[in-house]
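Researcher: Here's the sequence for the chain we discussed earlier.
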Amino acid sequence: MSKLQELKKHLKRGKVYRRAELSKWSTAVDRHLEELVNEGTLQKLSQGLYFYPEFTVFGEAPPEEEVLVRSFLKDSRFLLTSFNAYNALGVGTTQLYNQKTVYNHKRHGDFKLGGKTFSFKVKPHFPLKATPEFLLVDLLNNLDQLAEDPKEVLDKVLQRAKRMDTKKLKKSVLEYGNIKTKKLLEPVIAA
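Model: Thanks. This is the structure I predict for it:
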């Protein structure tokens, strides 16, 4: 069995691999990776990141975003979200955004992974799951980046905040809010 065949037998469909992971099964990992990409076995997602596609009745399935981000960061402590999540709050946001936001402890900047752009932001604190309270605070933190009219959205956000669980909202504001967000929500959470 050739070294390339040896490497291939360790690959699992639907999995994202880092170059370093594959080097333990190959003595010429760069050459083997190039061959696997050229023959279509692997897809190069970004520098040092590869995907072994899974096939469905609809064709090739892309890698799951969580798996992709976890492999890129070499860490499972992150929150993958999008400005689109604000639309569920009912505060007048209706735009659709292509970019995903990844709150994490390691990387900062915009990275293209598997044809999608992810905006990595280093944050000291973020929840494991995006709650409505977190999303409301996050929306205010990012209000100046949204396509909607900030004044209209702000008025609706303040109304929505009054109908939320004050204790949970206060916790989210203290843990995740920037200075401006804390000032805006202080009258609501102090009541």
